[in-house]
Amino acid sequence: MAKNWILRTRRDGQTEFPAFFETLADRLGISMKLARLLWLRGLDRPEALAEYLNPGLRHLARPERWPGIKEAAQVLADALRAGRTLAVWGDYDADGVTSTAIVLEVLEHHGFKALWHLPDRRSEGYGMNAEGVEALAAQGVSVLLTVDCGISDNGAIARARELGMTVVVTDHHLPPDDLPPATVLCNPKLADCPCIALAGVGVTFFLMAELNARLAEGGTPRMDMRSVLDLVALGTLADLVDLEGQNRILVKNGLLVIAEARRPGISELKAVSGFAPLAALGAGQVVFSLAPRINAAGRVASAETALALLRARTCDEAADLARQLDALNTQRRTEEERITEEALVQAENELDVPALVIIGADWNQGVIGIVASRLVEKYNKPTLVLCRDGASFKGSGRSISEFDLHAGLASCAHLLESYGGHRMAAGVRVSPENLVEFKEMFIDVVADILGTAPVSAIQMVDDVLDFKTASDFIFLKELEMMQPFGVGNPEPVFQSPPLRVMRRKLFGPQRNHVLLDLMDETCGVTLTAKAWRQADQFPADIEGRTVRIAYSPSIDMYNGISSVNVRIRDWKLM
């Protein structure tokens, strides 16, 4: 289905580019093209622009500006000095694993040992449970710190309190109306704060930074918290949170630490992902190469392997663990491809409905969220993919910008055992006897909002850009100043002038990617462009024809030689 190309506008509705930006751009030493891109993203105050272009750690918010951080740090410091046993309850995804690793690293720096628990995705599921809390209590735990979970675990936290535990919750998920009875709650969504989109690992970082300062008052040297920014960047990028404000500062600086690869686990993880240990990685390379290998452990085996990698002391130890994660990721990809193929068969039989509810009995619940994303990418419809999990069906959903998935599920809540998530992604659990009725009602809810006609996907475009400017390395270096790109800070996309297709070539193991040599007839410049997973969209007879593309240009480095990389986002035949 063809996408609608829409020129990007500011969220506040302003349409006229301010005249004062010329002076401001000159003062900041940037071009007017870059200045306009920043203005479109809502940046128009000198201090905001300066922070965006130079996101140094000095711009991180003070601990007192985060809900619960100072109080939680004091509670934990007092408990540790009193000799009480602390346990960390984490999560099986990259955000939870990196959070757990940071806590353990800070505590060990100050001479404290802690227990930890990473729940098993299949037998325990997400979040806390009373049985696990009781098991920790039996091991002498009297202080429980949650990371990337806990804000909705009222029952498990109530049980921990009954057992006499001090409970500190750090989480970033949407709080329920009825908050858990924890000793302290740390969640950026509980009060006005510098960044409500902070990832779980971001919350953990700020708490550990404050605890680090408190524990240093006892005589041990303060740990340099910059050393864990690699973990903060990895967890934040993997969780796909908005890369604005505080998140952007953490990730930008964390990518520098990932490039240094002083942590054996990061060095070896880069190696099995096909990168040189000291290679500088962009946000996309972390999201699509490093993070999946960390997540693969919790999806198809145990997250303990991923945690062990990040805590490994030597490269030999880390190398073995990295190879294990790489093998698990290969297994994950195989499962994903099998389930996607089976899901596509169902989807092709339901082309006339505005939403997809796809069901498989034996599918791996660890990859159904990825499959849902693939189906949304192909059909541009809100999609739920469910599989059997014990006596019920467990599902993962992804949506499109026009439909609030969480609100849609709320309309069907009486048919669900449980549900949770947000506008674009959610999880559900439904009993077999309600499955058919739920599917019908969910599709009806979507139809009421979107109608029954297909919804065209949208491709946002920042500006028109010819190939002469796109091959200007000074301009491309300016675009690099906008990195890291991701949710909340999208990579600029430009519309090309008419281009003549000089050559078409398929590449990749499955020959599902396409490479095009394109000549800009307005300036005579020819560039090579790549379209990933779009080989079937470019017919063999396209050579010699004229097209326009929506594209993102960047600098590609290979063997020390720079070239222009053109990534095709969408295209139209002229």
The order of strands across the largest sheet is 3-2-4-5-6
Poorly predicted regions? none
Strand content: 15-25%
Characterize the biggest β-sheet. Answer: 5 strands, parallel
How does the overall form come out from the CA principal axes? globular
What is the end-to-end distance? 16 Å
Helices and strands: which structural class?
Answer: alpha/beta
**How many whole angstroms does the radius of gyration measure?**
25 Å
Mean pLDDT: 94
Count of helical regions = 19
- Residues in helices, as a percent range: 40-55%
Beta-strand segment tally = 19
Give a verbal description of the structure.
The protein is of the alpha/beta class. The chain has 19 helices and 19 strands. It has helices at 21-28, 32-40, 46-53, 69-81, 94-109, 130-138, 154-162, 200-216, 229-238, 245-260, 264-272, 283-300, 304-311, 315-348, 368-379, 405-410, 435-450, 467-470, 473-480; strands at 4-7, 85-89, 115-117, 141-147, 166-170, 184-186, 356-360, 383-389, 392-398, 418-421, 425-430, 458-461, 463-464, 494-495, 499-507, 513-520, 526-531, 546-558, 561-573. It has a five-stranded parallel beta sheet with strand order 3-2-4-5-6, sandwiched between helices. It has a five-stranded mixed beta sheet with strand order 7-8-9-11-10, with helices on both faces. Strands 15-16-17-19-18 form a five-stranded mixed barrel. Helix 13 (304-311) runs antiparallel to helix 14 (315-348). The chain is globular.
